[in-house]
Specification:
The structure is a homodimer of 730-residue chains. By secondary structure, the first copy, chain A, is an alpha/beta fold. Chain A is built from 24 helices and 32 strands. Chains A, B: GO terms for molecular function: ATP binding; ligase activity; transferase activity.
Chain lengths: 730, 730
């Protein structure tokens, strides 16, 4: 979708401006430049136009239509007035300290305009033009000038290549929607203009709570996700941030920001470009690359981001997180329904989402029975059956009882609530409307969040809006209601986690540069040891005699392996011998030497790595990658030769604490084997977690890491043995 | 939800009726009794009432309101008229051959009423009363009488314990909805009354194509899913059947019926009670048990049933399958979008659903470029970008081009279609409306199905309804549109499968009764061999001498195992020795004998099983269970001691052909190892598939099977070795 054409006719050109040194945009009223950018109290339109087909006209029209109460300054050298707003003939003539300039001029003019804006103290700009880095070589010069102008002017920008932004709280429509969506607690950041339309329509479909800021970020040449979530979370008007992202210019920076912001403000994210095909599609769109899907999913969750997999759940889940109380972790969900099928489906969906069901006490069940009569199910799900036909108030009665049961964390009401007057006849309406009002009062009084499904929600009965005004969301889909309940639980659990502080990541001291390419295993082990990772008993040897000496020293049968940066698969080239004793040592060393000589080309530069034989146990994988988006990421899962086929691996942004490593272990299938499954010994998972944490700390101190595989790590009752270590530098 | 109260006041009682011998309800106009039941051309209401709170009044009111054009016969001994319809004072006074009696009387009267209906030639009845088998012991007597009355009367019934049925084609509302949903191609069978309301509302939300029959099946004491899908699929008015099921009284019967019906009529199913908690909830509702979820998912798909996991996808997917053409299998999906974000999300969702993307030819791309101009992406996804702003017709232009590309199986249009007049201004409207009309003509002319997403679909613009009238569905959710596209592909693939005919399953000949409990392995192997399963080289031996002789005969080192119905875990009790030679045979046999004597209580009744040692290979699991719902089901997956932890198993209702077993193998993770992964030899999967098929055939001939585990089956380049066989009878 193209949102109108830019002002690229020469007659509307902004006159040349003098270059000046950049200076930081001053704050106004204690607000930072970004604060002013996202909530403009004055707007200049640079490239204003009297032509209704132009964005420079549409934005003025949209601002007036939306009822924007602050100053509007159209800028056009031709002067006059547009839509009765007097036109300023140049940027230089703008009053001091305008909050936002919307720049509706083509790419090649943007840099100069920014510099002139900076000179007038303009805090921020929305840059619509495309033709920058997303055009590759063609846009390179424009991008270079833009970057220089950002530094020189100090003006903060959203864009370029954006469809604009919208602040519903101050009625600032810089996009030009035909009708402004309602003001409310959800802010939206997106890389796609069409996703702005989708969230606005999705909010309309569920009569959702509305929006504070909605911004298309475009190329994120300046303000990006990481910085803006901080700015938004500090706004009273924003209670949740919904993000559509096709990638991060600085993934690690986003993780750090999310980890802080999510403590106080929910972040809900839908990612595009998760599949290889989708990534290609996204590339053609914005020029940034999404990280590998599984890694991104893990590390974003780790830092408190609520992820949704479906585009139709982004807005509903954000609406719920923005308005609902949080459940107590450790307490379960009660389904309060007026029909068996809906209740069954809700319970199934809750179970699929991994949410616990409340186990209601006998006392609670007896109290429910007194309200509902003999015909109703008072277990969980509760089916109010015929009682609800009699009076809609039964839901509030039940909820008051449930809120006093210590097993209840959240109540999911599902079925026909509020619509008996539609299903049966109008005589139900007054009681239903009154019941909704009472439910709002009940929700205020209790700490248990209420989430409603009604199969009649699309009919939008007034009593549903009564609930919504009382911060109780009502959804037409059981699945969406459960997705919302699940998001509330997962957020509550994340907030309750106490992993302790991981060691500082990016400290300038104690960092190690990894040489390029594969390292000899002995070097890899020394690097890890130097950074605090226990690599067990082993020796490096240089010849048959020192191999023999090493085995003698270790005092038990050993594995002897070739130790070289030239050998990738040691076993495949006769480079591994097991059960080697003092007696067979020389012979084995010679065999390895001969094997190396027999390679094409011969491997000359090698030594031997000697380590005691390890008794059998569970074969695990511990490793790390340097993710192009998110930086060092530690891996744990099923190990051994079948590591790829097993497809059983958990990821965390490094470093992590042992407590966090315990959670990581629990995510994998192989964790079942660590608990003494069948013939396996029970493994000391605390020791394993400490090992994973030490690896995560080590890799976060490596510069030039490409990847680290410790595979297998053999875990048995008494030890964690890293059997083979492979470290590769960039 | 209770749908009004039944007529249980004594004054309205139906007078006693004489018992008579049952006789099958005659057909009328070539229609069977079930044909007449689902499309009644005359309706009697037994228990009609003049009280507006009673179902016996509401149904008459609903029939009149809906515009039911056939005869209505209220039955009540008090006579008179209800809503201007003359009341018949007894069933005996009904005219001959009434199609359907709605029985609005309590449980204890139903049996007598059915018998009297049978005497008057009534074809079918809808029985609303509850209090039968779903009440357990309390309802046992009523259930017994009901079953006897069904036999005696020959009347076919829906229910009892149902909220009724609705035939929109003949405007017969036997439920009493305030407004009849539109007549259309989707029929619905459900065990939940509330799910009737949900599908009706969901159809309303998407302006869906409407309904033929909607029936709540209740207890399915007579007509159930299996029979009704046959009846419905024979109706011209029904083009797809949507089912909400919480279990099957006769799962195998349903599979057989589905396998036939799905050839011509799509069946879409949402299951309730899939989780343990949901099963409990479902139990309290209808009294039937869902099969284990994974088994049910596999065998229903095997027989052509389209499964949906979300309640909000049942109706949309059924609407699409009822109206859309099917894609050619082997051709891919094209995403035709007017914005990058939507296109990326669609591609991601398609990828997640496992659907292929079309690889458009250079010629196609050049033709698209000619239409769309330089600014558009003409790969896949196609982004029409600014072109669409210019003229909405661009979509039809592109689709005509795409339909001629042999790589295109389906076109998913996504973005803002039909709503530029909402997003921008009304001036777009005439062109958009015309574009929709042209698209309908294009869809008629081409064999490539079109599926539309528009983020403005909830606004219900007229041009979307134009598309729908042309059998093109438009969805507000990208995810739902992709779920629909996926269902079309999977159905096309199922129809295209050629597995050949599996051997007859339930033949009375060549069946084997499995004794109860664990069988000695030698017996298990003989049973399987007798049914055509190759169990390899092995011998049963009775003492040390015959063990020695067996090994000598086999001519290589052997495994010697205890062979007894008393030993469950042979290894745990010293019952397995490996690498036994002629020399060590006697010693090993004695050791096993001593181990057995040392058990508590001592194992006396045992022999020896001797089999050659098997070289290493991939450890597989082949087995079978006798599913309580679906009967014999064959299993294949990862084997070995970790079989449970691996959680890698595929299921099929037995018997299957080798071709179908190949599909089963491909579903598992372990299949990656069969293709020569790393150090593993490539396995002859055709031979493996033949083995699985032979097991499936064997287990389908067993009576009294509880379970069969052949684990491990060791597969290497040259052979499939069943190493351990465990057969358990009920």
């Amino acid at each position: 979708m193209a949102l109108g054409t830019l002002e690229d006719d020469a007659t509307a050109a902004v006159p040349g401006i003098d270059k000046a040194d950049g200076r930081p945009a001053p704050t106004a009223g204690g607000r930072t430049a970004l604060d002013r950018l996202v909530e403009p109290h004055s707007v200049a339109i640079v490239g204003a136009s009297a032509n209704p087909d132009k964005r420079g006209y549409q934005i003025i029209k949209a601002l007036k239509k939306a009822g924007y109460a602050h100053a509007i300054y159209p800028v056009n050298p031709r002067g006059g007035s547009i839509l009765d707003v007097p036109v300023v003939t140049s940027i230089a003539e703008l009053p001091d300290q305008v909050d936002v300039a919307v720049i509706v001029r083509p790419a090649e003019e943007v840099a100069d305009i920014l510099i002139e804006c900076g000179q007038r103290g303009v805090a921020g700009a929305v840059v619509l033009a495309h033709g920058f880095r997303e055009r590759g070589d063609q846009g390179a010069e424009a991008e270079r000038q833009l970057q220089a102008a950002l530094v020189e002017s100090g003006v903060r920008i959203i864009g370029p290549n954006t469809s604009g932004m919208l602040n519903c709280t101050v009625l600032a429509d810089l996009i030009g929607l035909p009708e402004l969506p309602p003001a409310g607690p959800v802010s939206v950041l997106t890389q796609s203009g069409n996703m702005i339309l989708s969230v606005v329509e999705d909010n309309r479909s569920i009569n959702g709570p509305g929006f504070d800021l909605i911004a298309g970020l475009g190329n994120q040449s300046d303000a990006g996700y990481a910085e803006l979530i901080g700015t938004l979370s500090a706004r009273d008007a924003t209670r949740a941030i919904a993000i559509y992202s096709e990638g991060f210019p600085d993934g690690r920076g986003f993780l750090d920001a999310a980890d802080r912001v999510a403590r106080t403000c929910p972040i809900v994210m839908l990612r595009g470009g998760r599949s290889a095909e989708g990534q290609k599609a996204a590339l053609s769109h914005t020029g940034s690359i999404a990280g590998a899907d599984a890694v991104a999913t893990s590390v974003l969750r780790q830092k408190g981001v609520t992820l949704v997999d479906r585009s139709d759940e982004l807005l509903p889940v954000a609406a719920l997180l923005a308005t609902a109380k949080l459940p107590d972790v450790g307490k379960g969900v009660v389904v309060l329904a007026d029909g068996g099928g809906h209740a069954t489906l809700a319970v199934d969906a809750l179970s699929r989402a991994g949410l616990p069901l409340s186990d209601l006490s006998d006392a609670t069940q007896a109290r429910l029975r007194a309200v509902l009569g003999l015909g109703a199910s008072v277990g969980n799900p509760i089916d109010v059956a015929s009682a609800a036909d009699a009076y809609a108030d039964v839901f509030a009665d039940c909820i008051e009882i449930l809120a006093e049961d210590p097993s209840v964390g959240l109540v999911l009401v599902n079925g026909l609530f509020g619509a008996y007057h539609i299903r049966f006849d109008d005589s139900f309406l007054p009681a239903e409307d009154k019941a909704a009002e009472r439910l709002v009062a009940v929700q205020k009084a209790i700490n248990v969040p209420l989430v409603f499904h009604s199969c009649y929600a699309d009919r939008k009965p007034d009593n549903h809006d009564t609930l919504r005004r009382g911060d109780i969301q009502v959804f037409p889909s059981i699945d969406v209601a459960v997705a919302g309940a699940s998001a509330l639980y997962k957020r509550a659990q994340w907030l309750a986690q106490t992993f302790g502080d991981a060691p500082e990541r990016a400290g300038g001291t104690n960092r190690v540069q990894v040489p390029g390419g594969l390292l000899p295993e002995s070097v890899a082990r020394r690097v890890l040891q130097g950074l605090g990772v226990s690599t067990g008993t082993w020796s490096a040897a240089t010849d048959a005699a020192s191999v023999r000496a090493a085995i003698a020293d270790i005092g038990t049968a050993c594995a002897v392996k070739v130790d070289s940066s030239k050998v990738v698969h040691k076993s495949d080239v006769g480079g591994v011998h097991l059960g080697v004793t003092v007696e067979t040592a020389a012979d084995v060393a010679n065999q390895i030497s001969e094997s190396m000589a027999g390679q094409t080309p011969p491997v000359i530069d090698f030594g031997y790595l000697v380590a005691p034989m390890v008794k059998s146990g569970v074969e695990l994988f511990v490793g790390a990658i340097n993710d192009p988006v998110f930086g060092p990421v530690v891996l744990f899962g099923t190990g051994g030769v079948l590591v790829e086929a097993a497809d059983d691996v958990a990821f965390r942004a490094a470093p992590i604490t042992p407590a966090e490593a315990m959670c990581m272990i629990a995510e994998t299938r192989v964790s079942k084997l660590l608990d003494g499954f069948r013939s396996f010994e029970k493994v000391d998972t605390a020791e394993l977690a400490a090992f994973i944490a030490s690896v995560s700390e080590a890799v976060s101190r490596l510069d030039g890491l490409s990847e680290l595989d410790i595979n297998p790590v053999i875990a048995s009752r008494d030890a964690i043995h890293p059997v083979d270590v492979r470290l590769v530098g960039k």
